[in-house]
Amino acid sequence: MTEFSSDPIIAIATAPGRGGIGVIRISGAGLRGWADALCGQALTPRHAHYLPFRDRGGEIMDEGLALFFPGPHSYTGEDVLELQGHGGPAVLRRVLEDCLARGADMGLRLAQPGEFTQRAFLNDRLDLAQAEAVADLIEASSTAAARSAMASLSGAFSTEIDALSERIVRLRMLVEATLDFPEEEIDFLEKYQAAERLGAVSAALDCVLATARQGLVLREGLHVVLAGQPNVGKSSLLNALAGEDVAIVTPIAGTTRDRVVQQIHLDGIPLHIVDTAGLRETEDTVERIGIERSWAEIARAQVILHLQDARHPDDPLDAQIVQRLPAGVPVLRVWNKMDLLGHGTVPADGSIPGKSERHASREVDTPDNMPLRISAQTGAGLDALRARLLAIAGWTPGTESPWLARERHVRALEAARAHLEAAAMHAAHSDQVLDLFAEELRLTHEALCGITGQFTSDDLLGEIFSRFCIGK
Ligand code: GDP
User: Fold this and answer.
1) Residue 283 domain boundaries
2) Tens digit of pLDDT for each residue in 159-186?
3) How much is the pTM?
4) CATH number, domain with residue 265
5) Which helix (H) or strand (E) holds 424?
6) Which residue among 310, 328, 329, 414 is least crowded, i.e. fewest CB within 10 A of its CB?
7) Which of these, 362, 365, 385, lies nearest to 373 by C-alpha position?
8) What is the DSSP string of 20-34?
């Protein structure tokens, strides 16, 4: 980790735009004298000082609070100065530029994205999983995701990982010690009940993995393509699924015409929905960019929701729609407007058998793929649809992930489990190849440590922190 520079850094920490308050944050080693000079008074650590922010010529640019946090008891572990002024872009820029000019001698420069948090990690204020949780908390799109990110940030996830690591380390110590005394190798596994210990660690690891998978669903959500002819009720279904969340039915940020990807939440799980109605041929450049994004989104789709009018399930146009969609993505068929069929009520599981339930080769007629019968208007059958979507996402209803996890974490846990299994296999064989057993334990430990960042390459760190926002 020698690649990282320790120049003092500065950034506007609040979001761009206008707001009541705007915060400028400066971090570096030995900032105290400079901070006092900048503020024109000796700053008491961790005290709010109300003062004018004057430029080099003495003119007042703004007024607000200055807070000085001496290292190591600060966010980054270095000395940190925070200036809280008014949240206007021009005034913040002016204060920032003045600070940069006055800090030029000590090498003050603009911070890279995530650089404050990266320093917190490098100075052991946070481990890597906690640092990632900072970004996840900022990006959380539902209360459930925010709550779980906060749990990760406060170390709930890291504690579990550390506990697993510790158990592996204890076992490793026993094995490594035995390897130095070959005559003891023979009965090592028996003497220390290695197989039982392994089994217990494996079970604990499986629990952590299951929770991490739930955390991943909460973070990433489910990518859904909504396909269907005009007027079958796609918008109505979106609104009905969104339910009380309806205010969150928002276009993904971007150009005004980039309205084809929408996000709603089911049980706090984000559903990224691409409405194929938006995917038309167009000459308009802006709209085309939106459409290209939609195809990119479709490529990531985990399920296609094919909505049909229950009154015409055999419409040949529907078969054509299905053929145009990406191969390899499962299709969930939904018959809407059941209320117009006059069957009376639709059962909650939407499972009335019908005569024309199969028409496109990709829609395999398994019990899981009977058309779901719903009415977006009355809400009938929607619970079954919600349950099906959450099941496809891998979410177990009623559970709440105590922490938010990333793909990276799940992959590392899976790798750790694979190495544990290999170790167990060596333990099960009577020829007892103890050094292979030891090696698998070492690899298990390494995979776990990768999560919290003890053994993590600079490249990976760079990639993780570059996705943060500036000023964090
Ligand atoms: P889209 O073009 O596929 O997005 O379809 P819309 O959601 O705009 O719906 C088209 C029309 O069908 C509207 O008048 C809706 O009120 C109506 N509609 C949608 N779902 C239902 C339903 O389940 N039952 C009934 N009776 N009408 C529906």
Assistant:
1) 128-453
2) 999 999 999 999 888 888 777 776 666 5
3) 0.79
4) 3.40.50.300
5) helix 407-428
6) 328
7) 385
8) EEEEEEEEETT-HHH
Residues 339 and 413 in one domain: yes
Give nearest CA residue, ligand 1 atom 15: 233
Q: Total domain count for the chain?
A: 2
User: Does the beta carbon of 419 sit less than 6 angstroms from any atom of ligand 1?
Assistant: no
Alpha-carbon span 80 to 45, nearest angstrom: 10
Atom of ligand 1 nearest to the CA of 230: 2
Q: Ligand 1 centre from 336 Cα, in Å? A: 8
Q: Is-contact 227 237, C-beta < 8 A?
A: no
At 348-395, the pLDDT tens digits run 444 444 444 444 444 544 455 689 999 999 999 999 999 999 998 888
Q: Whose CA is nearest to atom 17 of ligand 1?
A: 233
For the chain, report the end-to-end CA distance as a whole number of angstroms.
20
Q: Which atom of ligand 1 is nearest to the CA of 275?
A: 4
Strands 9-12 and 49-54: unpaired
Same domain, 258 and 303: yes
Q: Given this model, what pLDDT does residue 352 score? A: 47
Question: β-strand 222-227 against 303-309: which pairing, if any?
Answer: parallel
Does the pLDDT of residue 251 top 70, yes or no?
Answer: no
Confidence of residue 320 (pLDDT cuts 50, 70, 90): confident
User: Which residues does residue 265 pair with via DSSP β-bridges, in sequence order?
Assistant: 270
The size of the chain, in residues, is 472
Q: Distance, CA 136 to ligand 1 centroid (Å)?
A: 36
Ligand 1 close to Cβ of residue 336 (< 6 A): yes
pLDDT tens-digit map of 254-290: 333 445 678 888 888 889 888 776 666 667 776 677 6
Q: Report the SS3 class of residue 272.
A: strand
Nearest to 422, CA basis, from 436, 435, 411, 409: 436
Q: For residues 214 and 460, give the distance between their C-alpha atoms in angstroms, rounded to a whole number.
A: 24
In a domain, residue 469? The reply is: no
Among residues 459, 432, 427, the alpha carbon closest in space to that of 200 is found at: 427
Instruction: Identify the three-state secondary structure at position 2.
Output: coil
For ligand 1, whether the C-beta of 406 sits within 6 Å is no
Does ligand 1 have an atom closer than 6 angstroms to the CB of 230?
yes
Residue in 236, 318, 321 to alter for ligand 1 test, most ligand atoms within 8 A of Cβ: 236
Are residue 38 and residue 53 in the same domain, yes or no? Answer: yes
Looking at the structure, do residues 101 and 133 belong to the same domain, yes or no? no
User: What are 262's two structure tokens?
Assistant: 């929408």
Least confident interval from 143-147, 333-337, 441-445: 143-147
pLDDT at res. 249: 39
Q: What is the Cα–Cα distance from 394 to 165, expressed in whole angstroms?
A: 27
Task: Give the CATH number for residue 84.
Answer: 3.30.1360.120
| Ligand 1 pocket, residue 340 CB under 6 Å | yes
Return the SS3 of 55. Answer: coil
End-of-domain residue from the set 104, 125, 146: 125
